[in-house]
Structures
1.
Amino acid sequence: MGVISIVGRPNVGKSALFNRIARARIAIVFDQPGVTRDRVAREVEAEGRRFLLVDTGGLAFDRTPGSEDPLAAETCAQAAVAVSDSDACIVVVDVRAGVTPLDEEVIRRVRASGVPCALAANKCDRAEDDSKADDFARFGLPVFPVSAEHGRGVAALTQFAVAKLPPAEAAENIRPLRVAVVGRPNAGKSSYINRLLNAERVIVSDIPGTTRDSVDVPFTIGSGPTARRYTLVDTAGMKKHTQMSKTSVDNFSLFRGERAIEEADVVLLTLESELGPTKQDMRIAGKIIDAHRACVILMNKWDLAEAKGISQDEATKVIRQMMPFLSYAPVVYLSAKTGYNVRRTVDAIDAVASSVQAKLPTGVLNRTIETATKKTSAPMRGGKRLKVYYGLQVGTDPLTIRLFVNDPKLMTDAYKSYLEKALRARFGLEGAPVRLFLKARSRKDGAQLGMEIGRLKKNSGAT
């Protein structure tokens, strides 16, 4: 598909325009320079075309007076790559500020790239503001008076940019696997993505909070019909709520990270091997469990832990003891710095994604449940014992099973966990959440239900 990038100096409204064209709140919009640093990309549809829309950080070229952003050079480099990869470019300017030297520099560099471009004269909130856009006509580029905040003029601008895209190719109806990389600040999430892609796709720095928004990174292994497609989502380091102001950029970043977890097919929880699981790591794990997402635990910076004589068996034992609620998640030890085991993480992602979509044969499912209940007696309360009559898979992603029992109130968390482990062991559901829902049925109703399902399976030829 085609690519349209949005560039400009800091604080002219690039992210607001990005969200307006995408018709969704994707990029963080905040009245502060330097909020967007990495390329924020999202596949959108407008004017009858699907294309990749890319938001970029403010181009300051290390010349903005009073700029305190130590990552200005890296932000400019990311924006430059975005422009070179684009089929069309929108340069955003602020009509209230008029033409600035930095605007001239941005326009000069974009024009030098040879990419078709237009100027979005932003903050023309009223019709009488449109005349201010005339000041930018001197650059010989199409100028569109727009208001990203209110949507004025955005349709005409989008129509122009879409018209510059190359002819659409036949689209493959294959949804990429969405993989969110989450963890505390400086756990090495961005370094891991760059190492996996063998490219500086996201900015890496020792400065906590370098990544502020959730960044989508398309990633493909192979080509043709057998190609495996992914969207890696780099997220900002997730801090405790007590460390943030309610109006801070960090708060928006945390919200984006939580949403990335909810939208992911697989979540990569990235920990630092030297530190092991911290309280904040366990809070993040709790969000993954609450969202019922599949999970792989990445123990990054393993080269540092190994240098101290720590073995993987020892580390795994500690992880399982401290995070028993994620005992189903596979653990991969890696080093984004050296590249150790980085490619192995893709195999773990594929295996977990397959588990999430597993279809459990009804007969085998119920034999597994029957064997488990015979091996360990169900709990009893008030002289009444829990009886499990039948189980039926009713959904995937997350894998959901409805159990028909005599009284759901008799079920305990410990016994439910026991049944989940039995199912995982039998069907190899590593990394996939399993949800058990209980429904009251009498023994007679349960038997009738079993007979009815048996007839349906026989008639359909199922085994």
2.
Amino acid sequence: MLEIKNLHASINGKEILKGIDLTIKDGEVHALMGQNGAGKSTLSNVLVGNPAYEVTEGSVIFNGKDLLQMKPEERAHEGIFMSFQHPIEIPGVSMVNFMRAAVNAKRKYHNQEPLSASEFLRLMREKRKVVELDNKLANRAVNEGFSGGEKKRNEIFQMAMLEPTFAILDETDSGLDVDALRIVAEGFNKLRTPETSAMVITHYQRLLDYLKPDIVHVLLNGRIVKTGGPELATDIENKGFDWIKEEVGL
């Protein structure tokens, strides 16, 4: 599904990614862990096409297509979704109108007929149940006045509506209490299929207890320096990153 080779990227002239190699197959969930400033969020921003980041070397192939040649909206229509660490508020824009525009834009890209109002509302009711999103929240402006947990739950709801094939969860567990974390993680798990994949960026083991990744990577100083199974996340939880730094000579 996703193949990244020797990816280098900078922001404001400062190199952050220094040669990322990563392959994610259909149906796999990969966790990406590392200290602040290691490049985790930079990688996610590069994948979704944030123009603030400049790719200086390397390639990214997504389902056989050159991802780096696509506009951000084309990447979204092709099936990439990112749940932001700090979802923004969009005052004056209702969730209903926002999501209907997004869903129908994707359908247009794939030469499908737009959903009628009744079809869209039926879909929205169905997907809202996945993450236990209150109907009152769904009818308000996008994220306006939402708590941290409500914003994250709303992100997974948007993911359910758009049905991406590759989801990036960028520290979705940040600021969540135990109940909100469980609801968000369970919502994500309900959306998993053998054809969908994900990259989960986190500092903590607790989210991975729910999501159960297939592979865990450690990103330090702009490179993936260690890869292992779920037990690697447990080791990091218990011992931190210093032992990995010593192991790889950082």
